[in-house]
């Protein structure tokens, strides 16, 4: 059951008639360990949707926009008319796209109805599970965007296949993600670094929940080619963690990144660790004390790899 919200009327060809339906669990929530989670398709997404998490998501958006020099996308879009945002979260990217492309119809899809009601007229939101069959008509979308979905998706080849079907010939799919790995290029990070250990433990917890967020980022390009996409391009960047860079712009990115991760630690950790690793909430809280200290006091020049992969559906696309 799904529910559209936002602007009046839906993007033509992007919603089916039976998608406009209501159910109680669309706007209901689940509470666990002092955090609020989605009720619709309960358990598919292991991170909260409460106010604290929404603020963190908006901080993450600001950090990514700084990292990407103000770009909302890398795919070479040419006057798109229909845009689909997978896992839209607070909807901030979709809203910015609506402002940048006023002639396009923007649809953001998410399990949680946490997006604002007052949005540009060309922006709409839909509660739906992208890991199930999509409601978008074949060959109806110019551009599909997914950002920071690696910790959430179990079957990326299926998502990519659905995107291929939904895209118009010549349309673009773009996937962007921070990789759950602590990188360092100058030897300042010790072998027992607490932040690196935390990233490894979080990735392990998600694997136990059938989500391999490391493998996903490493295999996007191959999966896109396997699905029939052409013009596959990769953009790789480094998001500094902390204010260690000497360059003022990179220092600002690092500040945003550090604050975003510090504020999100409990939300990132509590459910994956309790459900995936079998930890108690008390064990999680004690563990995070040292991780928080490391985030604020680390002298290591740590960064998180950021990767963007985008690709085009051929003008004469093969049928699936």
Task: Kindly describe this structure.
The chain is of the alpha/beta class. It has a single domain, classed as Vaccinia Virus protein VP39 (Rossmann fold, 3-Layer(aba) Sandwich). Strand 2 and strand 3 form a beta hairpin.
Based on the structure, what is the oligomeric state of the protein chains? Answer: single chain
Share of helical residues: 25-40%
* Unreliable segments of 5+ consecutive residues: 1-5, 7-23
CATH architecture: 3-Layer(aba) Sandwich
Mean pLDDT: 89
Query: Which structural class is indicated by helix and strand composition?
Result: alpha/beta
- Tell me, what is the CATH class? Alpha Beta
For the biggest β-sheet, the strand order reads 1-6-5-4-7-8-10-9
Rough shape?
Answer: globular
Determine Rg (CA atoms, Å): 19 Å
Q: Let me know the number of strands.
A: 10
Annotated CATH homologous superfamily: Vaccinia Virus protein VP39
The CATH topology label is Rossmann fold
Task: Report the sheet with the most strands, covering strand number, pairing sense and barrel closure.
Answer: 8 strands, mixed
Number of domains: 1
How far the N terminus sits from the C terminus, by CA atoms, comes to 26 Å
The H/E string reads EEEHEHEEEHEHHEHHE
In terms of DSSP E residues, the strand content is 15-25%
Brief write-up:
It is built from seven helices and ten strands. It is α/β, with parallel strands linked by helices and 320 residues long. Helix 1 crosses helix 6 and helix 3 runs parallel beside helix 5.
């Amino acid at each position: 059951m799904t529910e559209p919200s936002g602007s009046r009327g839906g993007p033509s060809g992007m919603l089916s008639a039976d998608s406009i339906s209501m159910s109680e669990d669309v706007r209901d929530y689940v509470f666990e360990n002092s955090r609020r989670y989605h009720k619709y398709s309960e358990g598919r997404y292991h991170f909260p949707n409460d106010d604290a998490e929404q603020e963190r998501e908006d901080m993450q958006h600001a950090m990514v926009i700084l990292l990407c020099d103000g770009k909302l996308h890398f795919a070479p879009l040419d006057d798109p008319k229909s845009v689909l945002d997978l896992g839209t979260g607070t909807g901030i990217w979709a809203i910015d796209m609506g402002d940048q492309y006023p002639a396009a119809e923007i649809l953001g899809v998410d399990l949680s109805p946490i997006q604002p009601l007052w949005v540009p007229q060309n922006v709409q939101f839909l509660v739906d599970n992208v890991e199930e069959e999509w409601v978008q008509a074949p060959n109806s979308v110019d551009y599909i965007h997914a950002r920071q979905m690696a910790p959430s998706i179990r079957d990326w080849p299926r998502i990519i296949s659905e995107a291929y079907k939904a895209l118009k010939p010549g349309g673009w799919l773009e996937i962007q993600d921070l990789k759950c790995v602590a990188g360092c290029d100058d030897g300042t990070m010790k072998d027992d670094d607490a932040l690196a250990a935390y990233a490894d433990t979080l990735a392990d917890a998600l694997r136990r929940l059938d989500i391999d967020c490391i493998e996903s980022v490493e295999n996007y390009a191959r999966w896109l080619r396997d699905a029939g996409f052409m013009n596959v391009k990769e953009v790789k960047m480094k998001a500094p963690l902390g204010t260690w860079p000497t360059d003022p712009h990179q220092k600002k990115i690092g500040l945003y990144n550090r604050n975003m991760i510090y504020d999100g630690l409990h939300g990132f950790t509590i459910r994956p660790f309790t459900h995936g690793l079998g930890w108690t909430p008390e064990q999680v809280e004690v563990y995070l004390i040292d991780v928080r200290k490391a985030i604020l006091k680390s002298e290591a020049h740590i960064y998180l790899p950021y990767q963007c992969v985008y690709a085009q559906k051929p003008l004469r696309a093969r049928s699936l």
